[in-house]
């Protein structure tokens, strides 16, 4: 294997692409209809743009999907159509946050088309992916990720139930994003009551671990809060389908959606925040 396709080089996709490039792989992508930031990332890391998806699967040995939840099934279906057009059954690896039901749907579609498929997830910060990243895979045992990312990112196989990696990803996603939604709500309240400095002075003293860890990630929500909303909606679907409680996941999705609708974190505002405290003061 020499060429790996990344759909698409957002923050995490670019981080994975850099790992692959360091290991000597050629990394390609398909940029039609992508955002200016994604195109910039591709140019920054010298990812070759392929003119069409059929051509992309013709040159790539593996296609890796790293997209927002709403795009997970469409990207998988586009891959299947390209395979049908070319007759080339390029393996497909889905590394997205999604519901287990979505993972099962994709696996069934890939199986019907006889396309090698790996369900996977990655847990870790894109900026420190080799240091903090951990990839989990599940379903029919695949060694593709083990081969291409050996000695770059830790990988663990969770068994032959295809949805296992997805269940883990969504549960982990719930931890930090539900906590962050709570921080956002209390920042809104503290700003409203004129108590921001006092409240977060106490939080920083009494709960320093939370703010030191999440404080590095919170400013990224100005770019990703719509995606976080979708992830919480997917988590809520997963928990509801399993018969477990989903109140906090659903509430977190509503909190993020409200912040989006009121434009608290518009780009021009967020760009003025030099640290997490300035960022949270925007929530008013």
Descriptive labels:
284 residues; alpha/beta; eight-stranded mixed sheet; 14 helices
Task: Give a quick precis of the structure.
The protein is an alpha/beta fold.
Give the helices and strands, then pairings.
Blueprint: E1 3-7, H1 11-22, E2 26-29, H2 36-44, E3 48-49, H3 53-59, E4 62-65, H4 72-86, E5 92-94, H5 100-112, E6 117-123, H6 129-132, E7 134-138, H7 144-148, E8 154-157, H8 164-193, H9 196-206, H10 208-214, H11 221-242, H12 247-261, H13 267-270, H14 276-280
Parallel strand pairs: 1-2, 1-4, 2-3, 4-5, 5-6, 7-8
Antiparallel strand pairs: 6-7
Mean pLDDT: 91
Structural class: alpha/beta
DSSP summary: helix tally: 14
* Helix and strand pattern: EHEHEHEHEHEHEHEHHHHHHH
* Strand order, sheet with most strands: 3-2-1-4-5-6-7-8
What low-confidence regions span 5 or more consecutive residues with pLDDT below 50?
none
Biggest sheet architecture: 8 strands, mixed
What is the radius of gyration computed over CA atoms, rounded to a whole number of angstroms?
A: 20 Å
Q: What percent of residues are in strands? A: 5-15%
CA-based shape: globular
Say how many strands there are. 8
**What is the percent of helical residues?**
55-70%
Distance between the amino and carboxyl termini: 52 Å
């Amino acid at each position: 294997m020499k060429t790996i396709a990344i759909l698409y080089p957002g923050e995490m996709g670019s981080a994975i692409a850099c790992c692959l490039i360091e290991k000597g792989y050629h990394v390609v992508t398909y940029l039609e209809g992508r955002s200016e930031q994604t195109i910039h990332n591709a140019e920054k890391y010298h990812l070759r743009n392929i003119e069409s998806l059929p051509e992309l699967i013709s040159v790539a040995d593996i296609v890796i999907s790293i997209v927002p939840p709403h795009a997970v099934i469409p990207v998988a279906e586009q891959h299947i159509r390209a395979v049908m057009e070319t007759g080339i059954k390029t393996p497909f690896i889905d590394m997205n946050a999604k519901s287990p039901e979505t993972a099962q749907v994709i696996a069934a579609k890939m199986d019907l088309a006889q396309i090698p498929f790996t369900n996977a997830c990655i847990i870790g910060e894109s900026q420190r992916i080799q240091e903090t990243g951990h990839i989990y895979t599940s379903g029919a045992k695949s060694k593709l990720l083990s081969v291409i990312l050996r000695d770059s990112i830790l990988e663990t196989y969770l068994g032959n139930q295809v949805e296992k990696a997805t269940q883990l990803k969504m549960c982990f996603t719930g931890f930090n994003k539900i906590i962050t939604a709570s921080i956002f709500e209390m920042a809104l309240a503290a700003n409203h009551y004129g108590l921001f400095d006092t409240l977060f002075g106490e939080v920083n003293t009494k709960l320093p671990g939370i703010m030191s860890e999440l404080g590095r990630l919170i400013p990224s929500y100005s770019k990703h809060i719509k995606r976080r909303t979708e992830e919480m909606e997917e988590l809520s679907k997963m928990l509801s389908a399993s018969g477990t409680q989903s109140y906090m996941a659903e509430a977190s999705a509503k909190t993020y959606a409200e912040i989006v609708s009121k434009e608290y974190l518009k780009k021009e505002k967020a760009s003025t925040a030099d640290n997490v405290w300035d960022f949270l003061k925007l929530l008013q």
